[in-house]
Amino acid sequence: MADFYQNGIITTLHNLSDRPLEDLERELMQFSRKRPMTLILPSLFSELEGDALPNIVEHLKKAPYLSEIIIGLDRADEAQYRHALKFFDGLPQHHRVLWNDGPRLRALDAELAKHGLAPKEPGKGRNVWYCMGYALASGRGESIALHDCDIVTYDRSLLARLIYPVANPQFNYEFCKGFYARVADGKINGRVSRLLVTPLLRALKKCIGAREYLDFLDSFRYPLAGEFSFRKDVLNDIRIPSDWGLEIGVLSEMHRNYANNRLCQADIADLYDHKHQKLSLDDQNQGLSKMSVDISKAIFRKLATQGEVFTPETFRTIKATYYRIALDFVETYNNDALMNGLTLDIHSEERAVEMFARNIMVAGQTFLDKPMETPFIPSWNRVVSAVPDVFERIEQAVEEDTAEFLARAK
């Protein structure tokens, strides 16, 4: 059970009483009359063949307060798209599958690229961005939640607690970030958050001094959680990265666009586990290695927009400071694990810290070498100004795909 302590500079909504799910869903049904709710599911086709997503779909069938479910489907050919239509057909809510690799959405993507408005690389960020565009186009949801499709410990209470803060008309929150304990199979997980993000934020505070942005990020108990919710108006102006910096990028945009009292985080699960990325010690373009580079760059870029000046010497100092702090955290987490009867591989933890330290330098050098790099996907407000009918065309493409292939899928 969580404590009630309010750490940091944003509101934390705890799970203090294990309130029955039925009570939450009864309220959400009432809220849905004023604030209809949408769920976004960014998915790879491979996740349809795993164990997690079928279970998620079974739980979602029992969430009647949802007005709409939007599934972004990546890495799927035509036969796989037809399979996806059949796979999700049992959902009682209005739902649509965005075939991101299909000819209609690819044609629209190519036109946006001519204007310099399309995402520059494939991945979760691109998938989420197009799902956000479809949510704006359909207009069915006022409160929108997003979570991953590989959560093996999923039950629908996670969704209820995630969307509640932005669905309750008495609350003024525009955005809610989910958090949870990354503990499963007798061990502590979440290495990138524990051993990169938190130590890096603490190192930056020591090296460049106190910054409200650093305090803001450090207020989130699990800053890399892929689960968040927001009001529909947030979607118009948000600029998100297309790489592994998505979660940090979203938080940075919330910090830029909204006062802290409009943001919150909520305890959404006692247990949480999902697909784990490989450490990829020898390949900076894969797994946690690439993730650590992208996340570090996202933080450095945000600080630069606030006037912070970085040099190679600065990054060397940050790296050295980070390394010492991170090693201390390894000991802290080991003690925490032992007291709770869990296991922690100290050797593996320290290898991760060594890789993250190297990648902080890689991220810093990349930042210095490419000062004109623009990793953010444009906001939908900007896209609409260049292509005024873009929402109508997204909706038309999805509807035509559905009409053409759904009958063949059955």
TrEMBL record:
Keywords of this entry: Glycosyltransferase, Transferase
GO MF entries: glycosyltransferase activity
InterPro entries: Nucleotide-diphossugar_trans
Enzyme Commission number(s) from the entry: 2.4.1.266
Protein name: Glucosyl-3-phosphoglycerate synthase
